[in-house]
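Retry 2 of 3 after timeout on previous attempt. Resubmitting structure tokens to design endpoint.
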């Protein structure tokens, strides 16, 4: 019964535990071997959007840090790659956008557009930083910058797919569960005047 006032909300500790489990799963998806996941398919950005939109800015930052920390430890142990601190800041953009644009909405269009925008910002900024740091020798020229972005397009395809897929799953599951089992979790939407 959706409107049962005796149902316990998922806020607080239970919601944090659920999202911590999602953070663990997000890190594990990132660590799957390439034959089992496309390049850069990840749920970490989506977790940042969702956690900030439904729990708040600082809980979103905390859960994102848990997911990134678990992922980076796994990548270090499996591949020997060291984490890039600036990438953590770029993932923080997902939290910021979720907190600013998605707190009081259940609009699939607005959620999808924010996921798309966050994905694009992440792509542009991280690849600019890769070009600036000359992760590969593209050269400090406009042609080198363009070459860097073109070389990164296959990775962006996975990032975009992961962001749209996992954002849809997280927000969709929340929408269904808040209408069926946890009515206290229902988002109070703000109507925009025409």
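Retry 2 succeeded. Sequence:
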């Amino acid at each position: 019964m959706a409107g049962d006032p005796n149902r316990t909300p998922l806020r607080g500790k239970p919601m944090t535990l659920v999202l911590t489990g999602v953070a663990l799963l997000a890190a594990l998806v990132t660590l799957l071997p390439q034959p089992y996941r496309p390049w850069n398919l990840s749920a970490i950005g989506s977790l940042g959007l969702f956690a900030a939109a439904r729990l708040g800015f600082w809980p979103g930052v905390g859960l994102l840090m848990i997911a990134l920390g678990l992922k980076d430890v796994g990548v270090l142990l499996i591949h020997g790659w060291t984490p890039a601190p600036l990438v953590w800041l770029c993932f923080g953009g997902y939290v910021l956008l979720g907190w600013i644009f998605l707190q009081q909405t259940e609009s699939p269009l607005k959620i999808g557009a924010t996921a798309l925008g966050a994905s694009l910002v992440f792509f542009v900024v991280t690849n600019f930083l890769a070009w600036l740091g000359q992760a590969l020798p593209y050269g400090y020229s406009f042609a080198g910058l363009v070459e860097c972005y073109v070389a990164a397009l296959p990775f962006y395809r996975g990032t975009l797919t992961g962001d749209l897929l996992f954002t849809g799953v997280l927000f969709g599951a929340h929408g269904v569960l808040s209408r069926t089992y946890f009515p206290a979790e229902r988002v109070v939407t703000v109507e925009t005047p025409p």
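Attempt log closed. Residues 70 and 81 are 14 Å apart (CA to CA).
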